[in-house]
Amino acid sequence: MQSKQFVKDGFALPESKGSISWIDKDQVFIGTDFGAGSMTESGYPRLTKLWQRGTPLDSAVTVFEGESSDVGVWAGVYFTPEGNYPYIQQATSFYTSNKYYYKDGKLIPIEIPADASISTIFKGQLLVSLKTDWAIAGNTYPQGSLVSIDFERFLNGARDFSIVIEPSERSSIGSISTSRDYLIANMLDNVHSQLLAYQLVDGKWQNQAIDTPKLGNISVIASSDTDNQMFYSYTGFLTPSTLYFLNGDMESEKTQALPAFFDASPYIVSQHAARSKDGTLVPYFMVARKDLKMDGTNPVLQYGYGGFQVSLKPSYSPTIGLSWLDQGGVYVLANIRGGGEFGPSWHLAALKEKRQSAYDDFIAVAEDLIKYKVTSPEHLGIRGGSNGGLLVGVMLTQRPDLFNAVVCQVPLLDMQRYNKLLAGASWMAEFGDPDIPEQWEYIREYSPYHNLDDKQDYPQVFFTTSTRDDRVHPGHARKMVAKMEAMGKPVYYYENTEGGHAGASNKKQSAYVNALIYSYLLERLK
């Protein structure tokens, strides 16, 4: 640290998608591009090797070999005071995997459901998060729950799990952290964060709520297995990221905060719910001036994602504050199905052939804003990126009458060929396989590229992408723009030559793209 130099004989690799993780001071698990046949069809490592410090990469020893049809193979170690547990995970799809315990050079299968995940190993307990109900040894463990069992007993055949957490219908487990004596669960309750501390006492899990700020997003920043102290951050739409220290008595103390970049005093955050086409209640947050006039003329920016069990939570954005709220805009965050806000069931409700439910949810939120005269189609804009770019692309083609501005960033749009481009093959568990006729039948129903209509009027949409996007190919946006231009439809298009899937590689580029976006939105909606 003093010389600010890398350690001699360290582990240096050429550029590649992959992973590296410590086993001990002088050994690592390594997954990288080892040459022909070593990567999967999705573009991730197919092999895991064990690499010794001070030896060339080509001397690393293969410990696991997956299939080319897998998404990828990853390895790591759960480090605990009681012992270390090396593992290998073979992702057979985006949501399913085979798990192995790597002990004394041997692979021992960890026999849990393929769609379940290992949260951690704590106090010798294997903690498993369930995506679907699991019936085993005469018991059924519910979807979305966290269960535990002594790992050594499990390896010897025991299957009598204990339920640690069973979330309610409107809550979910966000993440799990550990300290010396506590398992810390970061829960999402109606899209608000809450911390709970769990202890195993006489074979039973007990919990206590940790007093934290309410109605915002909490992230555990740092914890240690040697004591019960930790740091967590809290943020909200109007609250900059604030660091809290949690002492051993589970008492919080505010330590530092980022500065406020805009005056939050004129604004208020509210949470609402719209009723989707099938009757499902879909929550959304709205950030607006306290003196908002409900006359249908307010410029509104509605944001969404709706996929891959990603939860959209309150967060502080100086850009939104300065470039949108301070310019008279209203910001709306829609928690549509496909995300993880209410656990696995909320995600599964928009999977594959059920994808339209996510789009119906987003439409329902828009119609709710219009119904209560927060805005009108003339003043309503939407924004999304990646899978969210697909979302707003679907909105463009399904309900062009509902919006007057569409910001479509690094999007998927040609859903017939998405699985042949870059990492696309890994997402077939989410969208389906367009090469299977029955699955293409429902994918085609919403694929934006295939649903453009030259007789339809569209708002002047703004597409952005990056030449260097190595996740969603820029060809999606390019093809859509070319087709719309051929139809005589007005579009805006910006392609950054750097930046990967983020669309920008530094703050200057990010500022430039956002300046374009908010100038466009204000011009269209205000």
Descriptive overview:
The protein has 526 residues and is α+β, with helices and mostly antiparallel strands. Among the domains are: 97 residues, no CATH class; 257 residues, 3-Layer(aba) Sandwich (Rossmann fold). Helix content is 17%, strand content 35%. The protein contains 9 helices and 30 strands. An 8-stranded mixed sheet has the order 23-24-26-25-27-28-29-30, sandwiched between helices. The chain has a 4-stranded antiparallel sheet with strand order 1-2-3-4, with no helix packed on it. It has a 4-stranded antiparallel sheet with strand order 5-6-7-8, with no helix packed on it. Strand 5 and strand 6 form a beta hairpin. It is globular, with a radius of gyration of 24 Å.
Mean pLDDT: 96
Structural class: alpha+beta
Helix content: 10-25%
- Tell me the strand percentage band: 35-45%
Assembly context of the chains: single chain
Rg (CA only): 24 Å
Number of strands: 30
**Helix count, per DSSP?**
9
> Runs with pLDDT <50, length 5+?
none
Strand order across the largest sheet: 23-24-26-25-27-28-29-30
The outline comes out as globular
Strands, helices and their partners?
Layout: E1 19-24, E2 27-31, E3 47-52, E4 61-65, E5 72-80, E6 83-91, E7 97-103, E8 106-109, E9 117-122, E10 125-129, E11 134-136, E12 139-141, E13 146-150, H1 151-155, E14 162-165, E15 171-178, E16 183-189, E17 192-201, E18 204-209, E19 217-223, E20 230-236, E21 239-246, E22 252-257, E23 267-275, E24 281-289, E25 300-303, H2 318-323, E26 330-334, H3 344-348, H4 356-371, E27 380-385, H5 387-398, E28 405-409, H6 428-431, H7 437-444, E29 461-466, H8 475-486, E30 491-496, H9 507-525
Parallel strand pairs: 25-26, 25-27, 27-28, 28-29, 29-30
Antiparallel strand pairs: 1-2, 2-3, 3-4, 5-6, 6-7, 7-8, 9-10, 10-13, 11-12, 13-14, 15-16, 16-17, 17-18, 19-20, 20-21, 21-22, 23-24, 24-26
